[in-house]
Every structure is written in structure tokens, then in C-alpha cells.
Amino acid sequence: MELKGKVAIITGGASGIGSATCLKLAGEGVKAIGVVDQTDVVGSVCAETNTQLGGEILIPFRGDVVDSSFREEVFGELESRFGPVTLCVPAAGIIRDRLCVKVHQNNGWTSPSIYSETDFRRVVDVDLIAPIYWAMRTVGSVAVDRVKRGLKEWNPDESVQGAIILIGSISSTGNRGQISYATAKAGLEGAQGTLSKEAIYYGVRCAIIHPGFTDTPMVRALGQRMIQEQVLPNTQLHRLIRPDEIAGAIVFMLKNSAVSGTLWADAGWHPRA
User: Which of the ends of the chain has fewer CB neighbours closer than 10 A, N or C?
Assistant: First the structure.
């Protein structure tokens, strides 16, 4: 699929995998990229990058990805200024890591400490529900544009209309201390499988990539000791993956219409039992 001239949305786009993907897409000639992030640096990051690119390619939007009204605001502005949004990489994500159950003993009393429901719901909201809705709204953008042009079901004689890449994780198969994060990332597998079957009606592809431990602020927040003792020894490359390596794989998946389903980009992750 030709990416030049298309309109994209990247959530979590101010840093990490999202930021690297913005740069790769700009290099492919994407017309406009909605860069969505909740941090206050999203505007300055976009301004600096646009200066380097020599044009207003990155359009900053600051807000919470779980906010439906904010999501509609982003799509509405991009659609009115640039046309339908046809590419989406909902990369925003958080972790709230802790063991599922701990035992507390105090003054002779023994009680279980269960993982916080508040934390669980927030992780699922951000890492599972939000990306699905940003993806579905992208399909909606393409679908409405087709109706306006008098088109309905996509015909293989046409070019592919759009593509969505969901960001999974190696933790989707289960990972100690990540009950909420692993659950959310596993759930994206079902969403991808469903969207890939439904969205192709409008000519939109949907796939999912499962990155390994990548050098992002979220992974660095685990702490250097955790990375050195628990992550690197279980990774064949013995280093963190670079964000641009994952971004390169994402752009490959967007461009190559023969690629569907799941791609593992785990740097040889083989955790010990």
C-alpha cells in the first residue's frame, strides 16, 4: 500500500515506539500525522520535528486516549483539514505491575492483598479498550468517505484503503507481575482478529505486532536492576530493542498488504520458567 499522501493517527506519539513511528511515516511521505499524547511536551516535540521535516506534518493533540469526546475532536479536526484518516497505530500504553496476590501478616492477623481493581481497570481502559476504539473510529473514517464517494463494499480491483497496527506485547502470553497488562495485550489479539474480518469490507487491513522489551520510558521505569537481572539475560540480543526497530516493522506491516495477522518482534525473548 502506498503511504504517501495519507493521513495517520499515532497515540502515545510523543515518545518511544509512537514517536519513532511518526518519524518513519513522515519519511514515507504521509501528508499529516495526528500525534496524540497526554504529556505536555507533545506540542514542543511536534514543533521540533516539523522544523526538521521542513513542514507541518505532525499535528499535536494533548488529551487522555480513553476520553471519547477527545477522540472525536482529534478525528474531526484531521478529517476537516486533511481528509479521511486511513492509518492508525494506537501505541499509547501504561503498566501498573504488581503480583496478583500478596499475604500480609500483622499482629497475628493474616490477610490476602489482592491486585487493585482500580489499577486493573485503568490499564484495561488505556491498553485494551482505547486502542480498539481508535482503530474502529479509523475504520469509520474510511467508511464514511467511501459512502460520500458513492462506494460501498471494497473491491479488490481498488487499492487497499487503509491499515491499522495494534501494539501487543510479548507479555500477552502471560508474564509474572503483569496480570492487568498481560490481560489487556492478550485481548488485543481477539480485537485484531475481529477487526481484520470486518474492516476489510471497507478495504482496511488490521494486524498486530508484539514487541519485546523496547527502550522506552515505560520499560526504563522498571528500573535498571530489573532490566539487567530479569530482562537482558532472557533476550537473545542481550539488549533492549530500539524504538526505531519496532517502528520499522510497523511501517513494513502498513505498507505490505500481503502481511496480515501477527508479527512477533521480541529480539529472541525466552524467559526462564
Answer: C
Contact indicator for 180, 120 with CB cutoff of 8 Å: yes
Rounded to an integer, what is the distance from CA 65 to the centroid of its chain? Answer: 11
Q: How far are the Cα atoms of 98, 99, 116, 183, 260 from residue 113, in angstroms, in the given order?
A: 11, 9, 9, 19, 42
- Residue 273 confidence class, pLDDT cut points 50, 70, 90: low
C-alpha dihedral sign at 236, 242, 247, 248: negative
SS3 67: coil
CA distance 28 to 6: 10
How far is residue 151's CA from residue 155's CA, in Å, rounded to a whole number?
10
- The answer to whether the CB of 138 falls within 8 A of the CB of 9 is yes
- The pLDDT tens digits of the residues spanning 107-116 come to 778 889 999 9
270: in domain: no
- For the question of whether the overall pTM of this predicted structure is more than 0.90, the answer is yes
Phi and psi, residue 224, nearest 5°: -65, -35
User: What is the model's pLDDT at position 229?
Assistant: 86
Q: Is residue 272 part of a domain?
A: no
Contacts of 71 (CB under 8 A, 6+ apart): 65, 133, 134, 137
DSSP code per residue over 157-179: TSPP-EEEEEE--GGGG--TTBH
Q: What CATH number corresponds to the domain at position 26? A: 3.40.50.720
pLDDT mean over 4-32: 97
Distance CA 34, CA 43 (A): 11
Question: Residue 195 — φ and ψ, nearest 5°?
Answer: -65, -35
Domain membership of residue 256 as a residue range: 7-265
